[in-house]
Design brief:
The chain is α/β, with parallel strands linked by helices. It has one domain: Inosine-uridine Nucleoside N-ribohydrolase, Chain A, CATH 3.90.245.10. The chain is built from 13 helices and 12 strands. The strands form 3 sheets. It has an 8-stranded mixed β-sheet with strand order 3-2-1-4-5-6-12-9, with helices on both faces. A two-stranded antiparallel ribbon has the order 7-8. A two-stranded antiparallel sheet has the order 10-11. Helix 4 crosses helix 5. The longest helix has 18 residues. The radius of gyration is 17 Å and the shape is globular. The two termini are 24 Å apart.
Length: 307
């Protein structure tokens, strides 16, 4: 039976990879996308989300989400990683569709009620929309089956500062709200995503099998791989966001450790996800190891099903 899923996203090149994977996966029933700031502004994220769905031939709701963090001032998007428009060197293009009238948090709350105990929420950007949903609806944490986040790090250190992974760093207060909730949370962080790499030849192979959408990803990947090379990583780009989507349907490919977590919200460690065994919080299933070759093969093989 297919997993009912909403992806909360800030597209973003690896977001595009994750969304196209979900579009191709027969074991995922994608119910919609919610958008947030991060790789780009929320306005661009909403435009890009609509564009990706249209490219994939999917008519699904897109709910525009939070434009700023819960407490911190806004951040400048990371154009050096994803390009000014989010898709590397691919220029901006306007989709034909429009976002729904509900904002992201309200859409999440309503959909979780309608699919109580079935909805898997996969946030692959900052966690602001998820924190807002938890604050607006006291039953939201129980209504969702799982919240499988791409973000954080237990032992790997950071990728935007020495301590912090980017999605957590961009709204640490929201992440702390999520980790303090009694929702069932899985953290797919740098401890595992740094182990799963896609190279130039992998994207070439994807484009050969799926010339339209795979070709779009290959074109995006040129910019993305150049960024990785600029920071001294020449063996490919990490499959951050696709790994979280894959963890929703293939948890057996990941090892987890139940760990209560709290988030540093100030100072040089802001955004660090820290073990908090005496906090009284419910444990988060922190991914600590991954069958990297199996995840990568699944990603490439599923994308080959696309046009």
């Amino acid at each position: 039976m297919a997993v009912k899923m909403i992806i909360d996203t800030d597209p973003g090149i690896d977001d595009a990879m994750a969304i196209f994977y979900a579009a191709a996966a027969p074991d995922i029933e994608l119910l919609g996308l919610t958008t947030v700031f991060g790789n780009v502004t929320t306005a661009i994220a909403t435009r890009n989300a609509l564009r990706l769905l249209e490219a994939a031939g999917l008519d699904l709701p897109v709910a525009h989400g939070a434009e700023t963090p819960l407490v911190l001032p806004p951040f400048t998007p990371s154009a050096q990683v994803h390009g000014d428009e989010g898709f590397g060197d691919i220029p901006a293009a306007m989709p034909t569709g429009h976002p729904i009238d509900e904002d992201a948090a309200d859409f999440l709350c309503r959909t979780a009620r309608e699919h109580k105990g079935e909805l898997v929420l996969c946030p692959i950007g900052p966690l602001t929309n998820i924190a807002l949903a938890l604050q607006r609806d006291p039953e939201f944490a129980q209504n969702v089956a799982r919240i499988v986040i791409m973000g954080g790090s237990l032992n790997e250190g950071g990728n935007i500062t020495p301590h912090a992974e980017a999605n957590i760093y961009h709204d640490p207060h929201a992440a702390d709200v999520v980790f303090a909730s009694d929702a069932k949370v899985v953290m797919v962080g740098l401890d595992v995503t740094h182990r799963i790499l896609c190279s130039t030849s992998d994207f070439t192979a994807i484009a050969a099998q799926a010339p339209e959408l795979g070709g779009m990803l290959q074109q995006m990947s040129v910019f993305y791989l150049k960024f990785y090379e600029s920071v001294g990583k020449f063996d490919g780009c990490s499959l951050h966001d696709p790994a979280a989507v894959i963890a929703c349907t293939h948890p057996e490919l990941f090892e987890t450790r139940p760990t209560p977590l709290q988030v540093s919200c100030a100072g040089e460690t802001s955004g660090a996800t820290l073990a908090a065994p005496n906090s009284g919080r419910a444990p988060v299933d922190v991914c600590t190891a991954v069958q990297a070759d199996a995840v990568k093969s699944l990603f490439i093989n599923r994308l080959s099903l696309l046009p």
